[in-house]
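User: I'm putting together a small comparison set for a docking exercise, and I want a reference complex before I start. The sequence is below, and the ligand is glutathione. Could you produce the 3D structure with the ligand included, as structure tokens?
Assistant: Of course. I'll restate your input first, then give the structure tokens for the complex.
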Amino acid sequence: MSQPTIYHIPVCPFSQRIEILLRLKGLSEAVDFHVIDITKPRPDWLLEMTGGTTALPVLRDEAGRVLKESLVILRYVEERFGPAPGAQTDPMARGIERLMITREGPFGMAGYLYVMNRDRAKTGEKRAALLDHYRWLNDFLVRHNPDGTWLFDTYGLADIVYTPLFMRFWFLDYYEGFDLPQTPEFARVTRWRDACLEHPDAQQVSYEQIVKLYYDYAVGAGNGALPEGRERSSFVFEPDWPGRPMPPRDKYDRIASDAELGLIAAT
Ligand SMILES: N[C@@H](CCC(=O)N[C@@H](CS)C(=O)NCC(=O)O)C(=O)O
């Protein structure tokens, strides 16, 4: 192995962060990406490499040393290959970026819990929990860069960390009819989110791809688990997502079959 390898699952938001950073640096070829099929048990060589944990991405360097956690891997990529063009260097600016990033875990979790919920009585509370995070992000942006687009003047680390989550939240648009309220309290975060979604170096995934692959999350089954009555996961590699129909949106009423989702391979 002559360069690092990142092991990841398809459309993983956490590995997309690293892909965006590498692309911003013009270094997309400096790391190999190896896709793991999340619908099958993890191979022994992978579990041996991770020490038994299953969460990805995992980076393995040329010497066989292993790193986990996307934020840790991002930092490794920055330190190994140098900062991206326009990256913040001032210690306080770096601190403010990290402060904003402290919220990424709970923010992502709120969106995933919202899409996975199938109890209509709880939808309001899931939506409210996510909006609380968006409000916090809005206030943070207003405080540090009220008139700009990104957290600072250029698309940087905090923007990179959140962009893949905004893209996964297309599943909320499709399955929950969720969007940010068009009110002043969300105006700044809406501007930021929309610009992140359109950034040219962050186009590794599409709306259609997210909606099709994450169908199983929308009916409550995460991480390649099978929803009731199904034999194929929406994360299967074959048939690949472009050939499948758009899934039904009625996630609260029923679980679509393998056939309806286009998951049965032609024989
Ligand atoms: N905090 C971790 C989260 C990683 C994570 O949850 N990865 C998901 C894929 S998007 C995963 O591997 N899920 C399968 C599993 O945990 O077994 C990071 O930032 O890298």
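Residues 74 and 246 are 33 Å apart (CA to CA). Residues 9, 12-14, 54-57, 69-71, 223 surround glutathione (CB under 6 Å).
User: Thanks, that's exactly what I needed.
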